[in-house]
């Protein structure tokens, strides 16, 4: 039980976005989070990453309650995320975007720099190499020197992922990571996610691309109007009557 | 050699002002690099000026200590008002710091210890050009190094997208406060140096116009590099004098030129003038792809 | 009791001038999300133009007033064309717009300095008759009454304009969403120009009224009202016209009462700005504002 949602509720100005959401994510798996638009998926990710707190309920990461922690503390615990709307540092290069994501892992202390100690150069080189390898894993190392704002849509999504990887995360929250990507890019992302899981990362994946979800995820939670409809294996979810009804509407 | 001495005799005070303005411009550069538009740095300079002036004059505190104490008081004030203020964004932060600046100015006008509207008179003249430029050099070096450090990277991230910075593990409140307080400290030093240069400080020198001036130095010079604000301060302080030397006697015209420069820069050269001297621009012109901006010092 | 009434009248009077000035600020902010810091400079130029028309032009105040107002409006158009329009497409247009307005403020102020000189001047004697009415120990001058009536009339006219005319509705549409307004076929650039015209004309009127009342005009007369105008629109809610009016009056009253209570005018502004600071911390959307305090 790596990540545990216990009765998470959140409303905004009287409108309930999440209502007693409960499910578990097992370590080292890819867990899908699906549901129609507006069902609360992104809000849930915001709760996990600490951008917003739940009104009630608990969130446990490896048994530790994290729902009251500020975002930067949760990131320090090894939780990284991407954004549905893509929030890159558009005026920085791709490499710099990823280097920025290394915050916390790379010391970059001030005093050695003021004194121009040789260790600084070593640190810089190591930092750049690590950043380049993150870019390489996301398949965009050839764009390292390009300004982030000039990237294509698919490349930007991959940069988001590269930056998330810079954190060396244990838990990766992906909010529609392959939206707008071409087939070949999607295949590359699929093998990337699988390799991450093999390396021990746990992934919580929001996506609308059903075949992708079905192929990759070992378990799926369906949200509808902020409530957990069901949690189960892809096969179970695919034939669940309420899920079909939620997506396709009532056949009349 | 004689020529230099003559030059200095005529332009010495201008050279001093350029140095002080450059330090002040750098103080705002720090907060701008976190994306915070603070208009309170003139007030922080004022706090530093008055505090150090009072200490030297009334309590015979040695000069270096009173400068440090003045800057320290500015920093502490920044820490106190920073807590509510830094939660605001954009224009609201600007207005809150502006309001703060006005309150400080009015307080200076109304308190006896600050000499009221006449100002603090009789501060011993202790600042030399060497001291000013020494402080400027040290500050420039420090801020340039800061840029490539963890603090610098964090501030850059906050400036670009605060929400993304948060989920990347950056404690945004901490770093914003740090930038704000550091800016206030540097402004306080500049104010203290200024107080001991002129033998008098008046409240009007640290008001709204001064706060706007600092912003203008940064915009004209550009904030991509630590040398930008220095360039801006230099141009906008020296130009009116150069014009006066060239025979443009109307004060209004000299003032107007600054306005025109600012307008032209913001519309046509939004990265500021320093950008056109930077490695990035020059190498782009030469056809090579530019290096990373953040990583160069 | 009489003192209270006197203060009320004084506060109402100065408050309506503040309100008129603030409406100009808030109009531009509501439509463009930009704080126009050149507004105070136009306030000054409007007053100085009226002065020039009555002295050098030897026109009566009744002609000089509307003429100077038109000039102020025209300056607003210039402001838009030169300083704001070129920045429209930019992503950071509200920050660069702010800077641009600062540049124009400097240029306008230096123009005022150059044309009119640095001395404080006053309107010529006998420019119009100023009757004084006394009700017990309460004094009201006809000038005060005229100023209040003018200010209120203009503000009511503006509210009616915005609410009931096509142009007014177009302005509101652009304020809501520029992109949508464009899609609806509204001439957005024209609407923005109109907004600046109205805003600056009102600023100029405020300047003329201020100059008439305090009988002192100088190139830096906009300085003191500039910051107060900001405080007023924050108090009333940025982007809200009724808010600016109410905020202006509230501000004027609080100023007058602070002076009355503390016996000195020294702390008056300090109280005002402390209140502004407190509002920004506690309720940035102000009394009637649109709650856009935390820009994403």
Structure in words:
Chain A is α/β, with parallel strands linked by helices. In chain A, 39% of the residues lie in helices and 23% in strands. Chain A has 2 domains: 3-78 and 169-248, Rossmann fold; 91-153, no CATH class. In chain A, helix 3 packs across helix 5 and helix 5 crosses helix 6 (153-165). Chain B has a single domain (16-285), classed as ABC transporter involved in vitamin B12 uptake, BtuC (Orthogonal Bundle). Chain B contains 12 helices and 2 strands, in the order H-H-H-H-E-H-H-H-H-E-H-H-H-H. Helix content of chain C is 73%, strand content 3%. Chain C contains 11 helices and 2 strands, in the order H-H-H-H-E-E-H-H-H-H-H-H-H. The longest helix of chain C has 31 residues, at 2-32. Chains in contact: A-B, B-C. At the B-C interface, helix 4, helix 9 and helix 11 of B face helix 4, helix 9 and helix 11 of C.
Give a topology summary.
The complex is a heterotrimer of chains A (252), B (297) and C (296).
Chain A: E1 3-12, E2 15-25, E3 30-34, H1 41-49, E4 56-61, E5 64-65, H2 71-76, E6 79-81, H3 94-101, H4 110-114, H5 118-137, H6 153-165, E7 171-175, H7 183-198, E8 202-206, H8 210-216, E9 219-224, E10 227-232, H9 234-239, H10 241-248
Helix pairs in contact in A: 3-5, 3-6, 5-6
Chain B: H1 2-32, H2 41-59, H3 63-85, H4 90-110, E1 120-121, H5 129-148, H6 150-160, H7 162-167, H8 172-198, E2 200-201, H9 208-221, H10 227-245, H11 251-268, H12 279-285
Antiparallel strand pairs in B: 1-2
Chain C: H1 2-32, H2 39-55, H3 61-84, H4 93-116, E1 132-135, E2 138-141, H5 142-164, H6 166-176, H7 178-183, H8 188-214, H9 222-236, H10 241-262, H11 268-282
Antiparallel strand pairs in C: 1-2
Helix pairs in contact in C: 1-5, 1-8, 1-9, 1-10, 2-3, 2-4, 2-8, 2-9, 3-8, 5-6, 5-8, 6-8, 9-10, 9-11, 10-11
């Amino acid at each position: 039980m790596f990540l545990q949602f216990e009765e998470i509720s959140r409303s905004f100005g009287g409108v309930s976005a999440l209502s007693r959401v409960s499910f578990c994510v097992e370590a080292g798996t890819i867990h899908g989070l699906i549901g129609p638009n507006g069902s609360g998926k992104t809000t849930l990710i915001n709760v996990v990453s600490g951008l917003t707190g739940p009104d009630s309920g608990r969130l446990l990461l490896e048994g530790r309650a994290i729902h009251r922690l500020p975002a930067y503390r949760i990131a320090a615990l090894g939780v990284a995320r991407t954004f549905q709307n893509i929030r890159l540092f558009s005026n920085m290069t791709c490499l710099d975007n990823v280097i920025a994501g290394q915050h916390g892992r790379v010391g970059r202390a001030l005093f050695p720099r003021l004194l121009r100690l040789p260790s600084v150069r070593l640190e810089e080189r190591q930092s750049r190499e690590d950043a380049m390898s993150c870019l390489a894993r996301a398949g965009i190392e050839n764009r390292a020197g390009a300004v982030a704002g000039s990237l294509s849509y698919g490349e930007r999504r991959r940069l988001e992922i590269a930056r998330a990887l810079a954190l060396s995360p244990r838990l990766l929250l992906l909010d529609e990571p392959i939206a707008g990507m071409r087939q070949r890019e999607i295949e590359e992302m699929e093998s990337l996610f699988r390799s991450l899981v093999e390396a021990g990362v746990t992934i919580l994946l929001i996506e609308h691309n059903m075949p992708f979800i079905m192929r990759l995820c070992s378990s799926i939670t369906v949200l509808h109007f902020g409530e957990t409809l069901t949690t189960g294996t892809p096969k179970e979810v695919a034939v669940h009557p309420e899920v079909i009804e939620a997506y396709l509407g009532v056949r009349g | 050699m004689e020529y230099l001495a003559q030059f200095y005799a005529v332009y010495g005070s201008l050279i001093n002002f350029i140095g002080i303005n450059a330090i002040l411009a750098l103080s705002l550069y720090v907060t701008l690099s976190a994306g915070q538009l603070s208009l309170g740095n003139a007030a922080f300079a004022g706090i530093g000026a008055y505090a150090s002036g009072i200490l030297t004059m009334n309590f015979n505190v040695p000069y270096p200590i009173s400068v440090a104490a003045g800057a320290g008081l500015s920093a502490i004030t920044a820490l106190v008002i920073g807590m509510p203020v830094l939660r605001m964004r954009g224009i609201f932060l600007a207005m809150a710091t502006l309001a703060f600046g006005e309150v400080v100015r009015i307080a200076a006008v109304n308190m006896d210890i600050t000499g009221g509207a006449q100002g603090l008179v009789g501060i011993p003249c202790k600042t030399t050009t060497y001291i000013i430029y020494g402080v400027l050099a040290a500050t420039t070096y420090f801020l340039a190094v800061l840029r490539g450090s963890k603090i610098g990277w964090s501030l850059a991230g906050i400036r670009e997208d605060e929400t993304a910075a948060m989920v990347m593990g950056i404690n945004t409140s901490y770093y914003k406060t740090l930038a704000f307080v550091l800016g206030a400290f540097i402004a306080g030093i500049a104010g203290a140096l200024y107080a001991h240069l002129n033998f008098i400080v008046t409240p009007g020198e640290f008001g709204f116009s001064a706060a706007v001036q600092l912003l203008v130095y940064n915009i004209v010079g550009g904030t991509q590099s630590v040398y930008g604000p220095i360039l801006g301060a230099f141009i906008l302080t020296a130009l009116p004098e150069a014009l006066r030397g060239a025979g443009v006697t109307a004060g209004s015209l000299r003032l107007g030129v600054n306005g025109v420069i600012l307008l032209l820069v913001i519309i046509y050269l939004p990265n500021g003038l320093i950008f056109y001297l930077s490695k990035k621009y020059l190498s782009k012109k030469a056809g090579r792809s530019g290096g990373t901006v953040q990583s160069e010092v | 009791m009489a003192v209270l009434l006197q203060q009320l009248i004084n506060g109402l009077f100065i408050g309506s001038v503040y309100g008129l000035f603030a409406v100009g600020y808030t109009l531009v902010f509501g439509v463009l999300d930009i704080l126009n810091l050149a507004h105070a400079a136009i306030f000054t130029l409007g007053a100085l133009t009226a002065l020039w028309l009555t002295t050098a032009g030897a026109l009566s105040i009744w002609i000089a007033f509307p003429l100077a107002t038109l000039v102020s409006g025209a300056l607003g158009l210039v402001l838009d064309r030169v300083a704001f329009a070129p920045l429209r497409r930019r992503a950071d247009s509200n920050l660069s717009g702010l800077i641009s307005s600062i540049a124009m403020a400097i240029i306008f102020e230096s123009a005022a300095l150059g044309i009119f000189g640095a001395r404080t001047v006053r309107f010529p004697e006998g420019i119009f008759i100023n009757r004084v009415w006394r009700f017990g120990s309460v004094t009201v001058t006809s000038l005060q009454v005229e100023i209040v009536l003018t200010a209120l009339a203009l503000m009511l006219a503006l509210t009616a304009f915005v609410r009931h005319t096509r142009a007014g509705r177009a302005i509101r549409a652009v304020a809501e969403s520029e992109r949508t307004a464009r899609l609806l076929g509204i001439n957005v650039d024209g609407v923005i120009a109109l907004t600046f015209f109205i805003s600056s004309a009102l600023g100029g009127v405020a300047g003329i009224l201020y100059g008439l009342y305090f009988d002192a005009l100088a190139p830096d007369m906009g300085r003191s009202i500039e910051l107060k105008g900001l405080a007023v629109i924050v108090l009333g809610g940025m982007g809200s016209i009724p808010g600016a009016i109410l905020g202006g009056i509230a501000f004027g009253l609080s100023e007058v009462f602070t002076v009355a209570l503390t016996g000195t005018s020294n702390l008056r502004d300090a109280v005002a700005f402390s209140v502004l600071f407190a509002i920004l911390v506690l309720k940035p959307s102000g009394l009637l504002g649109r709650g856009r305090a935390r820009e994403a």
